[in-house]
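Our preliminary data section would be incomplete without showing what the modeling component actually yields. Below, a chain of 229 amino acids is followed by its predicted structure, encoded as tokens that our downstream tools consume directly.
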Amino acid sequence: MIQETRHSIAEILSRQPMFRGLSEDELQLIAAGCREFRVRKNEVLFQKGDEAHGLHVLVMGQVKLAIPSAHGVEKVVHMCGPGNTFGEAVLFLDRPYPVTAQSTVDSIVLLIAKRTLLDAMDASPALSRKMLASLSVRLHELLDDMETCTLRTSAQRVVCFLTQSIPSLDENRCDIHLAASKQTIASQLNLAPETLSRVFGHLADAGLIKVKGRTITILDCQKLRTFTA
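Predicted structure:
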């Protein structure tokens, strides 16, 4: 990772959802224990089993959190976008990272030292509540992922993924640009890449979508929502 020092870290923190509303003194306290990095595409930020040093905040780009296997196959747990944080839970457990974090595009990441973050939480009830909310959201995401992987068919998983990506309930036709590769999305949905392609083909044959590269055009949002395989 190349350390990036051109920007005011306190100013960057103030624009992140986790730290909005904190006072200037609180932001400066956190910034004092924070480093900013520019990471290249496909660069690994940390490996599963590495010691946890702090909280990561994604300022720009995209980071993939995944569980690798001995056979070279990975299970994508989460795709982080700008404003997302990762590594919260292990800060309170004194355990190593349970996942590997890898950038999928050139990205900017903040690393807030563990002691700095804990001191800031002691001083700010608002920050503690936001941290608790972040962990709660992550728990619900994991439960949703468990439900997707165990209780839904392949087609139901893909339809659910697409309908959740529709920008508005009022939309009847829209374009969705996949933020990650189809292989990564297949891993998120616990599908083989060829299974994802087969379901896309089935939905296209049904007149519900068109696929062109990473752009999925949903031709009828309402019919897609009520589609049953």
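The domain at 2-151 is CATH 2.60.120.10 (Jelly Rolls). The CA atoms of residues 52 and 94 lie 8 Å apart. Preliminary results of this kind motivate Aim 1 of the renewal.
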